[in-house]
Amino acid sequence: xxxxxxxxxxxxxxxxxxxxxxxxxxxxxxxxxxxxxxxxxxxxxxxxxxxxxxxxxxxxxxxxxxxxxxxxxxxxxxxxxxxxxxxxxxxxxxxxxxxxxxxxxxxxxxxxxxxxxxxxxxxxxxxxxxxxxxxxxxxxxxxxxxxxxxxxx
Length: 153
What we know:
By secondary structure, this protein is mainly alpha-helical.
């Protein structure tokens, strides 16, 4: 286990996202509360797993932390799309888009979690996180970037 700047940054990000998630969940009812909480929760998961991977935590292997981290990475674009549609008041009109992109995100997350097709391996060497991507990484990344682009369109 090693703690340094590379470990502190994801830890601080996790604490910030966790605090914002808690504040959002506690907030009064609003059409944007749940979509924002989903996005913040995905980012909190991503940051926490990044912290644990950089820390070289003995709880799970570095590869396992990176694969769990990819679940947060996968749902961040969908959470952003969900939040944008809620902010614009078009969630009901875009149900098919939200549903189909959710299914895509779920498929990518499941593939990343249970196989080496997206995240092949990871390890901490001399305090530095090293990782390798699997053969489906370009496809997964393209799909997730497409969801981000759709949310900005």
